[in-house]
Amino acid sequence: MAVKWKQLGNSPCNLCPRECQARRKDGQMGYCLSDNRIFVARAALHMWEEPCISGEKGSGTVFFSGCSLRCVYCQNYEIAAGKRGRQVSVTELAEIFLELQAKGAANINLVTPDHYIDQIASAVLAARDMGLTLPMVYNGSGYEKREVIKNLTGIVDVFLTDFKYMDEDLAEKYSKAPDYPSVAAAALEEMMQIAGEAAFDEKGMMQKGIIVRHLILPGHKKNAKAVVKYLYETYKDRIYLSLMNQYTPFAKVMEDSDHKELCRKVTKREYEAVVAYAIDLGVKNAFIQEGDTARESFVPQFDLNFHV
Fold this sequence. Notes:
Elements: E1 38-46, H1 51-54, E2 59-64, H2 77-80, E3 86-88, H3 90-102, E4 108-111, H4 117-129, E5 136-140, H5 146-150, E6 158-162, H6 168-175, H7 180-195, E7 199-200, E8 206-215, H8 221-235, E9 240-244, H9 251-254, H10 268-281, E10 286-288
Parallel strand pairs: 2-4, 4-5, 5-6, 6-8, 8-9, 9-10
Antiparallel strand pairs: 1-2, 1-3, 7-8
Helix pairs in contact: 3-4, 8-10
């Protein structure tokens, strides 16, 4: 059955929950720090995703510039702020997908794609006409409109999504988005309608399903436990959780006098407390991190060189 894409990018723009009304099609920057042109900061095989996403050869990641959330502690802040990126056309983006497939990518991993979703969907459909067969992974912040997610039926197979906050005050303080908990919850409900329960191939690679990531922040075990509790009580083991200890305090946040509490890594005790809480709740489908992942070497180099 042919997939048809309903164009969503109105002008003034109301694509994301912020509805900033920017005239992006006329060249005006939205809250996402993007106009209507596609900018890609990196396209390469990436080994550092969850095992069922990266596999042996890597996930075919495409990092898009700009972001509609822009958290103060962002681990990819150079591209979230639109300071890194090479302009590509829809046709060139489709060719990038095909080149990653030729390199042996396990999937095509769209990182922070929501503000370019019209163009990306067109590129996916064009690439499929040219022979793309890999699963499409939507790797986003969780701060997405439900109707936008619904429109991804037939485009996206796997959702690799964040769920950052259950605490509205934290969402306001760190992301200027007090509605994040309700928005992310609604978006996740729609993701479940599209992807359903997880399915894997013979190599253990996820072909469809949902992985929900939570990056634990220093000093915020309570928020982390609330996220885990909500996700497990709502979805049980129909989704996979990914509890991440890799928060790295970069210079940008270290220089910010309003967020001194974020100027350290998450302690082993903090992380283990959240993992133990998840186990006590009954969580079985989860990924955890071991060792020192809170290092800058775990953040890709956004060098504009497409390694495809």
